[in-house]
Design brief:
By secondary structure, this protein is α+β, with helices and mostly antiparallel strands. The protein has nine helices and five strands; from the N terminus they run E-E-H-H-H-E-E-E-H-H-H-H-H-H. It has a five-stranded antiparallel sheet, with helices on both faces. This is histidine kinase.
Length: 206
């Protein structure tokens, strides 16, 4: 699963992109200057409002987030991504920057995985350890394969400085509950935001 990284500096309204982040948007590294306006222009028009809302809340409230949305790259190719963001605070408690990872899940979401991933969750819950159960939940919600699901789980663990095993139990509880109707994408974002916020309040590993 292709992944890219970024840092947003809130006071300067400035972005630092990894080489993979440029390529994700259809540019060669350093070809353009990443700006907030450029980033929003490359969001799918139907997703701009939700991205603004999620990112704005992260800046105001200092909460980590996950947001699935579509981007349109410089060659007009549509990609579906899952973006994670982790606010960093200055000594006064204000958000100084947001550091994050963006995973391109276009290929996975191109296939109908509903039955297969539901079976993965059921099997994991019945017979596997807590980490494999969490992987199954991510597979069900985001259409990932097992290796990609573990990559996402590990990314959350790294960014929150919490053990993978400790995060897995909360992830299972959050992602196996709630509605599966039309409001599911919004609920998914809210659920994983809650997971990340809870992780931030936990004691670190001994």
């Amino acid at each position: 699963m292709p992944t890219a990284s970024y840092v947003y500096w809130a006071r300067e309204d400035r972005w630092d992109w990894s080489d993979a982040m440029f390529r994700l948007h259809g540019f060669e590294p350093g070809e353009i200057m990443p700006t907030t306006d450029l980033l929003l222009r490359h969001k799918h028009p139907d997703d701009v409002a939700s991205v603004r809302t999620v990112f704005g809340a992260a800046l105001r409230e200092g909460r980590a987030f996950v947001c699935r949305h579509r981007i349109i790259d410089a060659q007009q190719h549509q990609r579906t991504v899952v973006a994670f963001g982790f606010p960093q605070h200055d000594p006064s408690g204000e958000v100084r920057s947001v550091r994050g990872t963006v995973a391109d899940v276009t290929r996975q979401l191109a296939h109908d995985t509903r039955q297969a991933t539901a079976a993965a969750v059921e099997g994991a819950t019945a017979t596997r350890g807590v980490i494999d159960q969490a992987k199954g939940c991510l597979m069900a919600r985001y259409g990932l394969d097992p290796e990609e699901a573990f990559t996402v789980l590990r990314a959350i663990s790294n960014h929150t400085n919490r053990r993978v095993h400790d995060l897995a139990g909360s992830l299972i509880e959050l992602l196996t509950s709630g509605p599966t109707g039309p409001d599911r994408p919004a609920r998914t974002v809210a659920e994983v935001e809650s997971l990340l916020a809870a992780a931030d309040r936990r004691p670190g590993p001994s």
